Amino acid sequence: xxxxxxxxxxxxxxxxxxxxxxxxxxxxxxxxxxxxxxxxxxxxxxxxxxxxxxxxxxxxxxxxxxxxxxxxxxxxxxxxxxxxxxxxxxx
Length: 91
Hints:
The protein is mainly α. Helices cover 71% and strands 0% of the residues. Helix 1 packs antiparallel against helix 2. It is rod-shaped, with a radius of gyration of 25 Å. The chain starts with a helix and ends in a 17-residue tail after the last helix. 0% of the residues are buried.
């Protein structure tokens, strides 16, 4: 969650602030990269970082859910129905 907090508290505000501060004078200097391009690059980088985080969290939750399913299947409840066979476990 540190990545999210850092993005919200520091990275996004800094990107927007830099864009707003440089916008007016950059137009006067030809040959430089447009502030809009820099902001788009920054947002794309932040999006990629957030997507990596989301993918990792999703994978961890899927693993957690599968592990819990295996635990429930393996613990030997006689009234439980096994997901693979649709039948109660063998006694």
